[in-house]
Amino acid sequence: MKETMVRQETVAEIAEFGKDHGVIHEMIVTGRKMGAGRNFYSALAHNEELFARTVAFVANGGEDVVREIAVSVPQIAVSVPLSEAEQAAIAILGQGKVLTRAQTKGEAELPIRYSEDTLRACAKENVEQGTDWRLVYLRGNSLRQERERVGINRKRQPCFHNNDWWLSEKEDNWATEKFEAGYYLIDFNGRFGRTSWQNQENVIVQLGPEFERAHEAMVTEAALRIFEATGERLLETWYYWGRSLDS
């Protein structure tokens, strides 16, 4: 008969573990206030290089290390606390369905334009109808501004494909178009595929005045910033047809 060996913990080790457990709990509570959720802690748990850089960041006071790793490691801004409205939205939609001002390093504090009833309706649709409504804080960049911001280097994700047909002057009308910065509710579960742009538009009109086709720059910025903040890659196999027929 084989015996199973179990390492016995000393009283001192148990006491130290209890202290660590308490600190970990405090860290998670503070992290939630700053917008860090399951994806953030999972990234640390499964990426030793990222964890090592985070340790170095804390040990060195942050500033120099941030300059060194900001180009390659997605980070959540920790200098902007969650607003009460953001906390309420997270309580309704869930942590993973809200991209906060802190996570996008937004400069302006802007009101959330949607009522709590609307947020609850979206949360219900996510559960019952398979939609993917998310509340995202966006800075209003054009497609070209986002391309300039993230670049085209495939070794440094996220990035744009290295094509330039839409960088010509004749494409300026839609490729340089910006939108108003702020919070937007976007359903990332694409709808109305395999049909014409006009047929899609007709169906959207039938949904009512509270719905509209999302701007192509809006969807692009949202997908990029969500990846940067959480590592989640949205719309990976989708082509999106925005408001411009040329896009």
Structural commentary:
The protein is mainly α and 247 residues long. The chain folds into two domains: 1-73, no CATH class; 80-247, no CATH class. The chain is built from eleven helices and three strands. A three-stranded mixed beta sheet has the order 1-2-3. Residues 1-17 and 63-79 have low confidence and may be disordered. Helix 5 packs parallel to helix 7. It is globular and about 60 Å long.
Share of residues in helices: 40-55%
Strand order of the largest sheet: 1-2-3
Helix-strand pattern:
HHHHHEHHEHHEHH
Give the domain tally: 2
Number of helices: 11
Q: Which whole number gives the mean pLDDT?
A: 79
Terminal CA distance reads: 71 Å
What fraction of residues sit in β-strands? 5-15%
Class by helix and strand content? mainly alpha
Number of strands: 3
Sheet of most strands: 3 strands, mixed
Q: What is the rounded Rg?
A: 22 Å
Overall shape: globular
Q: Low-confidence parts, pLDDT < 50 over ≥5 residues?
A: 1-17, 63-79
Tell me the layout of helices and strands:
Blueprint lengths: L10 H23 L4 H8 L2 H12 L3 H7 L14 H10 L4 E2 L1 H4 L11 H13 L4 E6 L4 H8 L21 H4 L6 E6 L9 H11 L8 H15 L17
Parallel strand pairs: 1-2
Antiparallel strand pairs: 2-3
Helix pairs in contact: 5-7
What can be said about this structure in brief?
This protein is mostly helical. It has 11 helices and 3 strands, in the order αααααβααβααβαα.
